[in-house]
DNA sequence: ATTAGAAAGTGGCTTTAGTCAACTATTTTT
DNA sequence: AAAAATAGTTGACTAAAGCCACTTTCTAAT
């Protein structure tokens, strides 16, 4: 395993982290953080979502997650309902209001991404996206 | 500008952020955070580095940066020296000790990246890296 | 069947990260 | 020569995230 390869990947990691940071502009005005937006998104896609799943998925402390979810619940973005099979577990679902909140956050994130590719030729954007998909394809097996 | 393209890029952003997070294992034992490691790295490469440059580059508040640098200075990782031309400015340089600290951090980051590509075929790794370089190439003009 | 252990979730407390405003000391602009 | 801008520091504050102890429920091992 070439040390040079590792250096190139580290370089990309620095580059891409910073690039995402630079285009992270439209998120400041929101009452929810980027992390919270990701959590809402994950709740919306995953069904039978639980707090344990989320804290595991995002590598966040379960008590922290508990508080975030309590916050969401108070704001009416989600509802929690105890599982019939296992009464320790509460399934989490997005409410309509939660869906709207997510949409608002997602739209802002989209604006950021549009800013990121604005002015780049359509051909280049295609290459960009193909490259991204290639990376996902190659690394996906590694994240189980 | 296709909305679909934006969705695909957002998807990649989620994927890659999470992937980097999952392989961020060897950094817990260190007294310096990932951000601090990046700052040390930037100091090492950039010459005539200043606090203002760093807080601008990383989009971090200047007071926060000031404290981080003070910490580095106390730990003997950097030295600050007033510029001759402009006496508001202090140039920052890595000490030998700072270089060693950076190397330790960089080695740990390398281990993480090795874990990330471990088990992937050499051919695939080449495609991975080409894709990363393509992305850098396309987005580089956008970050000035 | 009983009990030891594990897992899900919560609450109190602390630490880490980052913001905001005020201030000093220089330099640049007008 | 003011006035405005820039570099950096400090103090007080807020937000993000983690640590630990606890309850409840379930699972596994006797």
Number of extended strands of chain A: 2
Using the alpha-carbon principal axes, give the shape of chain A: globular
Uncertain runs of chain A with pLDDT below 50, 5 residues or more?
none
Examine the coordinates and then state which fold CATH places here, giving the name of the CATH topology of the domain at 30-110 in chain A. Answer: Arc Repressor Mutant, subunit A
Largest interface: A-B, 52 and 51 residues
What percentage of amino acids of chain A are in beta strands? 5-15%
Order of helices and strands of chain A: HHHHEEHH
On the 0-100 scale, what is the average pLDDT of chain A?
A: 96
CATH class category of the domain at 30-110 in chain A:
Mainly Alpha
Helical proportion of chain A? Answer: 55-70%
CATH architecture of the domain at 30-110 in chain A: Orthogonal Bundle
Alpha-carbon Rg of chain A, integer: 18 Å
What structural class do you assign from the helix and strand content of chain A? mainly alpha
- What summary fits the major beta sheet of chain A? 2 strands, antiparallel
Count of helical regions of chain A: 6
């Amino acid at each position: 395993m070439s040390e040079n390869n590792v250096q190139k990947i580290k370089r990309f990691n620095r580059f891409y982290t910073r690039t995402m940071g630079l285009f992270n502009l439209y998120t400041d005005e929101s009452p929810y953080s980027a992390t919270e937006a990701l959590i809402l998104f994950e709740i919306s896609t995953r069904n039978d979502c639980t707090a344990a799943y989320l804290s595991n998925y995002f590598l966040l402390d379960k008590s922290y997650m508990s508080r975030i979810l309590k916050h969401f619940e108070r704001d009416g973005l989600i509802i929690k309902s105890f599982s019939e099979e296992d009464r320790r577990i509460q399934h989490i679902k997005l409410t309509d209001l939660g869906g709207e909140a997510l949409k608002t956050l997602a739209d802002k994130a989209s604006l950021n991404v549009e800013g990121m590719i604005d002015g780049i030729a359509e051909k280049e954007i295609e290459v960009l996206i193909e490259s991204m998909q290639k990376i996902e394809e190659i690394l996906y097996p590694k994240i189980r």
